């Protein structure tokens, strides 16, 4: 596993502020060569330190309902259920957590009816699910993928 040093962190901070920033611009701001920036970014990409993604506003693309769904699985089914959930187009995130639920997922839907259909059709058909707890987002205060202050 590679070690992220202060130059890498500085590059990441600049990309975090503007992912379309050019290597030349980054190099000037950090007083290093463009080749250094390019090689550092390529190395971090190959080591999967970060990835370039497009972060969309779900509401602006027709996904009006965000749900956080806690799932309790039958003993021995956690991984099987998680893998099946990974295949669902509505699901953005699946994770194993300690606490009340074995799995927690984040999913987006066009409307409440689509969410109800997902629960009653998709989730109910998955073997190994014991209990489902659905929470709908009512208001959002923060949504970021920025981890470096």
TrEMBL record:
Coiled-coil features, chain-numbered ranges: none
Species of provenance:
Alkalihalobacillus trypoxylicola
Question: Transcription: is it a keyword of this entry?
Answer: yes
A biological process (GO) of this protein is: response to amino acid
Domain HTH asnC-type, by residue range, is 4-64
> Record's Gene Ontology CC terms?
cytosol
Write out the GO MF terms.
sequence-specific DNA binding
What would be one Pfam family of this protein?
HTH_AsnC-type
PROSITE patterns hit by this protein = HTH_ASNC_2
> Which keywords belong to this entry?
DNA-binding, Transcription, Transcription regulation
Keyword DNA-binding present in the record's keywords: the answer is yes
Q: What is this protein called?
A: Transcriptional regulator
């Amino acid at each position: 596993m590679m070690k992220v040093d202060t130059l890498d962190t500085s590059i990441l901070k600049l990309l975090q502020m503007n992912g379309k920033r050019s290597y030349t611009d980054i190099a000037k701001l950090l007083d290093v060569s463009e080749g250094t920036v390019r090689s550092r970014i390529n190395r971090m990409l190959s080591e999967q330190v970060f990835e370039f993604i497009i972060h969309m506003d779900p509401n602006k693309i027709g996904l009006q309902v965000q749900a956080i769904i806690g799932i309790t699985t039958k003993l021995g089914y956690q991984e099987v259920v998680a893998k099946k959930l990974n295949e669902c187009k509505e699901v953005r995130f699946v994770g194993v957590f300690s606490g009340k639920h074995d799995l927690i997922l984040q999913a987006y839907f066009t409307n409440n009816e689509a969410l109800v259909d997902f629960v009653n059709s998709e989730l109910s058909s998955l073997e190994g699910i014991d209990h489902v707890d659905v929470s709908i987002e009512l208001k959002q205060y923060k949504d970021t993928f920025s981890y470096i202050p």
